[in-house]
Amino acid sequence: MIPWRKNNTEASAAPATGAGHRYVFVSGHPRSGTNWVSSLLNLHPDCFCDGEFHFLILRWAMDGFTSLPWYLGALEPQKSVAEESFQQLVRNCLIERATIRCAGRASEKNPPRSVGVPGGPPPSVGVPGDPSRSAGVPGGRPRSVGVPGLPAVLGDHTPRLFRIMISPPEARYIVIQRDGRDVLVSYTFHLLNTKAPDVIPEHIRAFFQARVATLDGSAEAHVAAGVALLNHEPWVRHYANFWSEHILHDHRIWQSVASQGFGGYVKFVKYEALRADVEGVRREIYEHLGLEAGMAAGVSAETNTAPGFGGREDVKSFYRKGEAGDWRRYFTPEMGRWFHETAGAAMARAGYEADGVWVGGIGTGIATDSQRVSARGAQTEPARVSTTTKKTVLNT
To answer: For every residue of 165-204, which 3-state class applies, written as one string?
Structure first.
């Protein structure tokens, strides 16, 4: 889903000739607010943040390329050259996308400019006598040359794991986190709206497809299907684990980054805090990027930057509700127990619940008895958590 963006007339003046752009990467679990943060960034005339590039796929490939000591890519100087080239690729992609959106390009269908063509992305220039070094910066770091007509800060938002894509301080990072219980509810309705079984794990796919088949276009059918999924134990445990792994991974990566003295270039933002004080938290975000907060436009429902999307609710929309604590309407004590058993450690690590006491305070939710029986009855195998693991090799 595309966040709110500037039009061509809203791009600020270009950075001074020869000055490099700065970069920002917004990450977080799906349905945690990465789109919202991106839209807030785009209220500032000196920032353009788009998505989703999914640079993480390339980062994982780089992990593999440099992972084993008998790979030439793991040896110097090839390893440094590969990393420099990866970071320059990321810069070029961000600059090209910003050029399309901000610099008056007539159409995204126009062919991209080649590296080295006047006005195109900065080339990687070989250093005479030293093939291991690229472009013009002491130590071989490629330059990021300011492109006229583009904002000073360019970025990507992708709702995936936090990793370093461009080294600090040239790049800064925003990691947004949201209560996993709200994420579970929001993600469930989002997946229903996609109607895409291929993204659903095999052990819960048939039940998901059966719920999709009940959708008739009405909000009532969407709510009933969502409630049925949320009362299905394998569904809850799988997505609770998915959220838990994400939260714990991001904290491990941050610890690695912080241990090298770069922790200050990563800002964690709580969705709930942003919703409660959008002006205060977005001011902190702009300042984190070295931007003057007073230059940003105001939030509004029209730009999807107002908390809770202006108070509307649409279960069939990408912008469903955006409420903090909405999980209480859906959770039952059973669901709470499943969630806590699966994601309790991550809830504590992220500062949401120190223990499982909260489970005892849950009401009955909005599901009917028949929906709960149906959800349990459709369970054809013991509830289990997917054992598929993601590559989490540190790159810093």
So the answer is: CCCCCCEEEEEEECCHHHHHHHHHHHHHHHCCHHHCCHHH
Residue 276: enclosing H or E segment and its boundaries? helix 271-276
Residue 60: its H or E element: helix 56-65
d(CA 277, CA 353): 21
Distance, CA of 161 to CA of 170 (rounded, Å): 20
Contact 336, 357 (CB under 8 A): no
Nearest to 171 by CA among 151, 144, 150: 144
In 170-312, the DSSP E strands lie at: 171-177, 266-270
Tens place of pLDDT for every residue, the chain, 396 residues? 445 444 433 333 333 333 489 999 999 999 999 999 999 999 999 999 998 899 999 999 999 999 899 999 899 999 999 999 999 999 999 999 999 888 653 344 443 333 333 344 443 333 333 333 333 333 333 444 567 778 999 999 999 999 999 999 999 999 999 999 999 999 999 999 988 888 899 999 999 999 999 998 888 898 999 999 999 999 999 999 999 999 999 999 999 999 999 999 999 999 999 999 999 999 999 999 999 999 999 998 888 888 875 555 555 454 555 677 889 999 999 999 999 999 999 999 999 999 999 999 887 766 544 444 444 444 444 444 443 333 333 334
| 327 within 8 A of 301, measured Cβ to Cβ | no
Residue entry with tokens 């917004």 = 26
